[in-house]
Each structure stands twice: as C-alpha cells, then as structure tokens.
C-alpha cells in the first residue's frame, strides 16, 4: 500500500511541478495574463510549486526504506525522474500541440524507463 501511495503522490507532485515549470509558457495565450511581469509569473509558479511539495515530501517520507517504505533513496529518485518525464510528455502533447515527439525523444524516454528497471535489480 505504501508503494501505491508513494507512486500516486509522485504523479500528483510531478503534475504540479510541470504546471509550475512550464505552464506559464502558455500565459501568452490567456488574456488575463498578457501584462504580467516576470516577478508575478515567478510568484504564480511558486504558488503552484507549493502543491508539488505538499505531495513530494510525503511521497518520499512514506516511500523511503528507512521510514518503513519499500524504496531505497536511489529507487525513489530514479522513479521520480521517470514519472516526471511521463507527466511532461502528456503535458506537452495536450498543451503544446506545436511540439512534436520524435524518435530520439522516445529512445531517451525508453532509456529512462530502463534506468528504473536497473535501479530495482537486486544486488
């Protein structure tokens, strides 16, 4: 159950992170945000990122082996990176329709998934 909650929280966390890091790039398409300065955009992104931390910290705390979770520190980080890329791929397809996912992007993604596989091999 801790593994499931950890993974779910990592997906939620990375959704907020992706919105905070890249969502503001779509502000130019929204009338209300066209006159916003950089400091305001940073503040909005920080506000969104707060929700990332609300899920990221508990995910790591619950998932970490030394706290009774199922994952080592390396497994947590590598899994988080794979989830981050997965969320980003979905985000870019849905919101940035001008971005094309090429074969080399898919190879890079496959290598990240392969990294997760290697991280979970028993020593």
From TrEMBL:
<feature type="transmembrane region" description="Helical">
    <location>
        <begin position="36"/>
        <end position="55"/>
    </location>
</feature>
<dbReference type="InterPro" id="IPR007437">
    <property type="entry name" value="DUF486"/>
</dbReference>
<keyword id="KW-1133">Transmembrane helix</keyword>
<dbReference type="Pfam" id="PF04342">
    <property type="entry name" value="DMT_6"/>
</dbReference>
<protein>
    <recommendedName>
        <fullName>DMT family protein</fullName>
    </recommendedName>
</protein>
<feature type="transmembrane region" description="Helical">
    <location>
        <begin position="76"/>
        <end position="96"/>
    </location>
</feature>
<feature type="transmembrane region" description="Helical">
    <location>
        <begin position="102"/>
        <end position="121"/>
    </location>
</feature>
<keyword id="KW-0472">Membrane</keyword>
<keyword id="KW-0812">Transmembrane</keyword>
């Amino acid at each position: 159950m801790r593994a499931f909650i950890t993974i779910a929280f990592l997906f939620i966390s990375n959704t907020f992170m992706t919105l905070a890091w890249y969502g503001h790039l779509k502000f130019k398409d929204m009338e209300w945000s066209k006159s916003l300065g950089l400091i305001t955009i940073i503040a909005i992104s920080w506000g969104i990122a707060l929700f990332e931390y609300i899920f990221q910290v508990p995910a790591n705390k619950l998932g970490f082996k030394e706290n009774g979770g199922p994952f080592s520190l390396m497994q947590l980080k590598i899994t988080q990176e794979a989830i981050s890329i997965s969320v980003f791929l979905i985000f870019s397809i849905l919101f940035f329709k001008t971005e094309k996912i090429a074969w080399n992007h898919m190879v890079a993604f496959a290598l990240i998934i392969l990294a997760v596989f290697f991280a979970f091999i028993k020593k």
